[in-house]
Amino acid sequence: MYQKRLNQGLIFVSILCSLFIIVNFILNVNKGFNLLDEGFYLLSGAYPQDIKTQLTSYYNYTHLIMLINDNIVFLRIFSLLLNVGVILLLSVSLLNLTSDKNNKRVILLLLISMLPTSFISFIFPIVPNYNNFTVYGSITFYSVLTIAFTAKNKNMINLFMLLLGFIATFVFFNKFGSGVLLITLAFIACIIYSTTNKKSLAQSFVFLITGIIIHLLLFFTCIQSFKKFILVYKFGFQSIKMIESNHSIDLLLQYLKQITELALYSFYHYGIVIYSALILIVLQQTYYFFKLKAVKLTVSYSLLISFYCISYYNFININSEKMITLSSFYFSGVVLMFMISLINIFSISWRTLKQNQVIISLVLLLLCIPFITAIGTANTIYMQILLCIFVWMPVIILLSSVSSKSIMNTFSYFTITGFSLLSTYYAYTILKENPYGLYDSLPQQTHLTKINNSKLYVDSITNYIIENTQHELKKCGFKSNDFLVSLTDLPGLTYAVHARSPSCAWYFGIFKGSDKFTQFCLSLSKEIKSPYILLSSFHGQTPYFTESQLGAYFSNFLTNYQLCGEVKNIPIEGGACCKVSVNDIKIYKPRV
User: Fold this and answer.
1) Cα separation, 458 vs 461, whole angstroms
2) Residues 490/582, Cβ–Cβ less than 8 Å
3) Which DSSP category does 526 fall into?
4) First-to-last CA distance in the chain?
5) Contacts by residues 256-259 (CB-CB < 8 Å, ≥ 24 positions apart)
6) Alpha-carbon torsion, ordered 518, 520, 526, 529, to 10 deg
7) 67-76 — which CB contacts under 8 Å span 24+ positions?
8) How far apart are CA 431 and CA 27, in angstroms?
9) Comparing C-alpha atoms, which of 587, 577, 572 is closest to residue 438?
10) Assign residue 403 a region: left if phi > 0, alpha if psi is -120 to 50, beta otherwise?
11) How open is the CA angle 322-326-331, to the nearest 5 degrees?
């Protein structure tokens, strides 16, 4: 009776954690605006026909959603619903991996345990974008794969293979490298399943390819023509060569370095926990020690508690610059639970061990998803782990209960509640102190301003930049949907003033080779004549572009353009967003 009440109390705490995070997020969904990433995603989705140099088609999917409602608050809520939906699907798929398949409450447990961790990823812009689409698509791919390998009705395998092909192709259009990798994994899964279940390999291949073809037909008939797709990808490959940070070999080397750093950092900071787990594996060989269940449970609890304490000590005053610390927290948690699960696996029969090999293989594949979704982007591995962080929670829970008679034991409840509490603390702290990667905290987002067709509360500096730029543009005769060549690193400013940006929404001024990249972008937009031009300078930095450089992009610039407005005296404290601190903005218009 006491254990039952304890379990109910622990799970009630987990439910409260999830409700607290959801309510807190919804209450603040209209606060904060990132002039960099979030603005880039919005501008790309608002005018997809202007994008000609992106090796991705995610902006077409975003545009379809924006046709329903382009209000930023709606788009953030839409992302929230997608997130929860993917978590629910993942929970259902993981339920098939547990030994207690008849206990329906497991779905609820997995769902509520993942919610707090999922909101940690919302420290980044959460309007629909290629990162989120890729993560959601990859998790859906994994969920369908897991259901396929654990389903009792083997006649459904052809449907599962069709879905795998469809989903992998969706990811391909959002992130080229990740999509190619998932399509490859789909064919490998098809071969493995056909071999182990004596199914026709040709039949499985046909349905997998059919899923790919169905998505291709839908995309090229309803979203983007095949001719334009080929043209955009051709320009996309050309533009990638101009940005050194996007070279595939450099990125792979960077990923390898970051993965090594993550492993070393986790081992250094949480080594005592890993050492203890290894010692347990050795001690389990002793018959009397392993038979003492009370001792085993006490040691497991002690490991978990020490892990929490060590983590909490290292996470005091966490901020966005400590992404490796947060990533290593979940990485170390998986290692710990993996070790504990090995203790159980080593003590069971060969038949059960063979069954658990499937579980462990699927878990390892799931752990690769953050790295799969990183392929093809300059984002760090640490950032991708945070974007995928809700994936790690069910893995920890699943591993903690591998080979147990029921997932509904006190240790599992304790694991769920402990991580829910810590994740809630981190999510609340980060959302409050660093919402959407902004400088100013959530309480400082107090100025109501109009951003395109939406109204948001933003910090004083962002409000100053947007409203003064709108005022200066109006004096220059600017009208909504006019073209604006923004040679700044603030694509969100272009979106906020309801302007269109030719060829590329973001000129990557922070990267080497941005001058060649900008010139290439503008060369693809020759049909756009006499656009407005924005220039900006930054505190302690040389302006990306000067008036003397504009002759390379616009013929007879000094003759055909005139300075018509300027936003000065932008406060130096904080900044408009996480990467730049704008000093002044100059506006040029074509001479009549």
Assistant:
1) 8
2) yes
3) T
4) 85
5) 258/380, 258/381, 258/382, 259/371, 259/381
6) 10
7) 70/46, 70/452, 70/453, 70/454, 71/453, 71/454, 72/30, 72/33, 72/42, 72/127, 72/451, 72/452, 72/454, 72/456, 73/29, 73/30, 73/454, 73/456, 75/42, 75/127, 75/128, 76/29, 76/126, 76/127
8) 12
9) 577
10) left
11) 135
Looking up tokens 């937009």, which residue turns up?
A: 525
492 neighbors 505 (Cβ within 8 angstroms): no
Global confidence as pTM: 0.85
DSSP H stretches of helix in 453-513: 460-475, 491-496
Q: Are 185 and 142 within 8 A, CB to CB?
A: no
Q: What is the pLDDT along the chain (592 residues), one digit of tens a residue?
A: 667 777 778 778 888 888 888 888 888 889 989 888 888 899 989 988 888 888 888 899 999 999 999 999 999 999 888 888 888 888 888 777 765 555 566 666 667 767 776 766 656 667 888 888 998 999 999 999 888 887 777 678 888 999 999 999 999 999 888 999 999 999 988 887 777 666 577 888 899 999 999 999 999 999 999 999 998 888 888 877 776 655 667 777 888 888 888 877 777 766 655 555 555 555 554 444 444 554 555 555 555 555 555 555 554 454 555 667 777 777 776 776 666 666 555 555 545 555 566 667 777 787 788 888 888 777 777 777 777 777 776 676 666 555 455 555 666 677 677 777 777 877 777 777 777 767 678 888 899 999 998 999 998 888 988 999 999 999 999 998 888 887 777 788 899 999 988 777 665 555 566 667 777 887 787 777 778 887 776 554 555 566 666 666 666 676 778 888 888 877 765 444 555 567 788 888 888 7
Helix (H) or strand (E) holding 11: helix 2-27
Structure tokens belonging to residue 253: 């080397």
Q: CA angle, 547 as apex, 461 and 526 as ends, to 5°? A: 95
